[in-house]
Each structure stands twice: as structure tokens, then as C-alpha cells.
């Protein structure tokens, strides 16, 4: 009898595994208050039969005689010596006697978590998915993104925090119940999110077009600029920072000259041009590092510049999305990425001005003072000695010199 029952259980589980949807097996006993399109969340197989739980937390068992799933829990067959049935799933049974199997829940578990009827957790439960408590939890229960359900047989000694908390009649909660919005929910429909993405996309397109034009039209200038930018990072940064501080007095100084008023707008335009050149050089440096690590070696300067600019501007994209989303957590991450993006962009903007000053906008190659001292200390190559007349090779003998011309 037990062997045939085990075979039926195996065949049932195999059929459930091949079924396209759990709902096709669900036949609730009371169709008036239970939906017929129930979706099962998990299935358990033991010596007593086949049991499952739907997404709403209701228990089902498989009736082998009718070959359907039935809502509820079957009557136990085991009895105590006085003839009373042992129902370990009875809500009136003390949890200390019923819940004897200790389990451990992995922190921040993403899959649905179920504490069974005879199970207990002697710790806090903090997960990302749904939590169903049928047994006993001695600590707090928190779900960051899903609901927490305490069934008729469940008990939680601590607090419960989740976007949605359901405690059925008979369930015990010793602490407070706090329903709060999920910190992981990000609403991307906010107007500022779209405006921020448009602004960042516009700046990205401007930098990409400028970088392509500079690399194609003036490759030698860009090469001198990139070499100075990468070899003198500290010097170009602080020199550029100083020149940015001198921008207002420089504009005033140019404006007070006789021919300075028409040239005044050219000063900030020159600063903007050097900042763009700095972003191009910085993008080339980032793109070269990316190509060496992930693409097997250096690529063309145009390709490296494009990849580097996209990588740098991706931080601005992430910041715009998070800042335009609802939720304190999303805004906090948005501020964090915004600070990182500002610091990362300030370096090429400042160093670009310094590198442009040292290389005259890439016209000449910049040599550090150590390179200049080394080249001055090296003696010039010796000149070749003069050639004396006797060192000239003798002319070849006349092929007809032996013929008498008379």
C-alpha cells in the first residue's frame, strides 16, 4: 500500500512539473470565496502526500482519490495514546511544542521564504522577497520589497516591516507592524527624470561630435595635447584651476582695452574649447585603459575617445535617472552618483585648460623641465672629420689607355 502511494505521489509530482500552469490543478472546495485561477507558489512532497501553497498564502493538498488539489489541510492519521489526533498544524498547539525544527534564512534572500508549521527561526529575518510565516520567528521580520503574511498558525515575537503586512485571524505578532513603501521601487515617470536624461544626452552628443572633429581635423594637435594631459596630470590640473580662477579678471582686463570689447566673448569660448579638449583627452585615456583590459589592446584614438566619453557620461545618466525618481533611497543614490560625476568631470575640465596653456592649444609639444635639462646636458653628436684630397678614391683606369693614339 505504501509503495503504491509513493508511486502515485511520484507521478503526481511529475505531472505538476510538466504542467504549463499550476492553476489547472486548483479545484477549490468553496468556489464562492476562492478564485479558480489560483497560482501555486511552491510544492512540498513528504510521506503524508503532496502539499502546496498559493501566492495568497493558502494551503492546498492533493486528493489522490479525486485527483485534484483541495483547499485546506488534510486530517492527520496519527493519534496519541488517548485516541486524540495529533495535529501539529493546529493554531491552538503551543509553538514551543509544534515548532521543533530550526531553520536559517539567508539575509537578503530574493526568493519567496516560507517558515513551515513545524519550523522556527531563532533570529531576525530580513529578505527581499515575500515572507510567509506558518511557524515561529523569535526576532523581527522585514521584507524590503514584498509582503509579509502571518497565517493562522504563525507567530512573530518581534516587529514586522514590509510594504504590505497581512496577519490572519489566529496569527500572533508580539511587536509593531509597520507598512512602508519599498526603498527599491523607482518611479521613472517623473518629469525631471526625462528632462535630466535629455540634458545629459545633449551634452554627450556635443562631446562626441567635438571629439570626432578634433581627432579627424587636427590629429597632431590632439596628440600633443593628450601627451601633455597624461604625462603632467598634477601640473595641468592645478594650472588649469588657477586659470579658471583668473577668468573674471581676465575678461575685465580684455574688456578695458581699446580693441577688447569685441574680443571679450572669445575669452570664455576659449575656455570652453579647452574644457572640451580636456574631455577628449580624458576620454582617450579612459578608452585606452578599457581597450587594454577588455578588448585585447589599444585601438584607434577615435574609438578610444568615443568609448571613454560614453563611460564618463554614463555616471551622469545614472544620476539623472535616480534624481528624477521617487523615493528617498533613489534620491540618495542619485546624489551620490552626482557627486562622483562632478568630481570625475572636474579633472578633465581643469586639466584641459592647463594642458592647452602649456602646449599652446596643441601647437607645440610640451617638454617637462627634466626633459629639457636632460636634452641640454647631452653633448651634441660629433661632426665627421674633413676629407683630405688624398682620401678621394682614384679614378678608374682608362680602358683604352694601352692603345697607341698615333
Short description:
With 406 residues, the chain is α/β, with parallel strands linked by helices. It has helices at residues 2-18, 95-98, 191-217, 219-231, 233-245, 247-255, 260-263, 266-294, 301-323, 328-359, 369-377; strands spanning 40-46, 49-54, 59-63, 68-71, 101-102, 113-115, 119-121, 125-127, 131-133, 136-137, 141-143, 147-150, 155-156, 160-162, 164-167, 172-173, 177-179. Mean pLDDT is 77; it is low at 16-35 and 76-89.
Distance between the termini: 142 Å
Uncertain stretches:
16-35, 76-89
Strand content: 5-15%
Could you say which overall geometry the principal axes of the C-alpha atoms support? elongated
- The arrangement of helices and strands along the chain is HEEEEHEEEEEEEEEEEEEHHHHHHHHH
Structural domain count: 3
Strand neighbour order, sheet with most strands: 5-7-10-13-16
Tally of alpha and pi helices: 11
**Rounded average pLDDT:** 77
Class by helix and strand content?
Answer: alpha/beta
What percent of residues adopt helix (DSSP H or I)?
40-55%
What Rg, in angstroms, do the CA atoms define?
40 Å
Number of β-strand runs: 17
Largest sheet entry: 5 strands, parallel
Structure description:
This protein is α/β, with parallel strands linked by helices. It has helices at 2-18, 95-98, 191-217, 219-231, 233-245, 247-255, 260-263, 266-294, 301-323, 328-359, 369-377; strands at 40-46, 49-54, 59-63, 68-71, 101-102, 113-115, 119-121, 125-127, 131-133, 136-137, 141-143, 147-150, 155-156, 160-162, 164-167, 172-173, 177-179. It folds into three domains: 2-71, no CATH class; 95-179, no CATH class; 191-368, no CATH class. Helices cover 44% and strands 15% of the residues. Strand 1 (40-46) and strand 2 form a beta hairpin. Mean pLDDT is 77; it is low at 16-35 and 76-89.
